[in-house]
Please model this.
Amino acid sequence: MDIYTFKTLMKGVSMKFAVGFAAPAAAVVVFLVLSCSDPSQISLYTPYPSLLTAEADTTNSISLTWTRSTEEVDQFDRYIVYRSLTEDTATDSTIATCIVIISEQDDTTHTDDDLQWSTPYYYALLTVSYIDGGKAWSNEVSATTPTEP
Model:
């Protein structure tokens, strides 16, 4: 029996198939297998991402607002807001800091206080669902705090 990797579905998850011939009728037998090097990477359910906006206030803070998750109330788990000093917060959360976790679905604002003056900050929001641990990143936004008065 020969085994072939057919397609990589997502990081660490591949679809493989095996083909064998059964004698004497020379019937073809095909097995389809999903393999995963890291089961924590699998999520078959993904919530809809929120749309995030950021606006620098007149003080050294940035106000964040996002669209409410469209998850059913019993499916929504939490929002997680990440901040970074460099771009690509959503694609590389290792460069970002979690600044707040919000478990109320209708709570769609946060003010990030006590920031450095005249500094650009980048933000992304992660929406997490109870269903299969599904996650969805928002768009990345940036805002620069004003110059110190």
User: Anything to note?
Assistant: The CA atoms of residues 5 and 30 lie 13 Å apart. Residues 3-15, 30-44 have pLDDT under 50 and may be disordered. The longest strand covers residues 13-22. Residues 52-144 form a domain with the Immunoglobulin-like fold (CATH 2.60.40.10).
